[in-house]
Amino acid sequence: MNGGSLQGRLVNQTAIVRFGPEADRANRRGEAVSQVQIFDVADTDERRRIACADAVAAGPQWHALWTHSHCEQMVRDQLTAKGFEMFLPTIDVWSRRAGVRRRISAPMFSGYLFLRHAMDKPSYIEVRKTRGLVNILGESWDRLAVVPVGEIAAIQTTVQSRLPILPHAYLREGQRVRIVRGPLANVEGILVRQKPRSGWVVLSIQLLRQSVAVEVDCTWITAL
After folding, report:
1. What's the CA angle centered on 162, arms 158 and 164, to 5 degrees?
2. What residues make up the domain containing 35?
3. Of 28, 48, 73, 77, which residue is 20 to 30 A from 85 by alpha carbon distance?
4. Residue 143 lies in a domain
C-alpha cells in the first residue's frame, strides 16, 4: 500500500499505535511487526450506540448523586419534576438556632441522594443540567457507579419504619445479621451490641463509605 492510499483511508479512520508488552506479545505470536491498528470512526459511534442500548436493556439501577452543600432537596425537587425516580433519605438531628435547640430533618448522607434510572446518554446529560448537582458518581456516563439494590432497600425500609436512626461511623466488617421480626424484617446489617438484649444494626452505603444505625431487640435477629 502506498502513502497516498493510506492517507486516503485515514481520513475517516483512527490509527492507534501499540507499544510495550502488548506489542511484544503480538510479535511473539507471529503477528505483523507494524503496531498500527485501524478502527473506523463509525465503529466508535456504533460502540456508543450499543452502550446506550445496553444501559436501557440492563434496566433501572440506583446511582448516587453528589450535590453542593445543602442542595440535596433542591436537586431532588428538580429531577422529580422531570419524572426521575429519586430517593433522599433523611434523619432527625438536633439543631440550635437563635439559642433554641430543636430537632430538624437533615439528609441521611450529607451531600448525596439517589436516582433510579436506566441511564443512557440523553438521560445523563439531562441529569447533569440540574442546578446544585456536582456530579453523578462514576467514571463516565456509560460507566456510572451502581449502588446495590439491597443497600437502598435496607435504608428505605428503615426510613419507612419511623424508628430512630442515628449516624454511625462507617463499618465495613463485623458480625453480619438479618432482622427476622418487626418493622425491619429481612433487613441485613452489622450488629454492634450495646446491651445484653439489644444492640445497633449498622447499615452502610459502601460506595459513599457512610453508615447509619438503628436499635433493635437482639431476639429479633439471626446471624448470617
Report:
1. 80
2. 3-55
3. 48
4. no
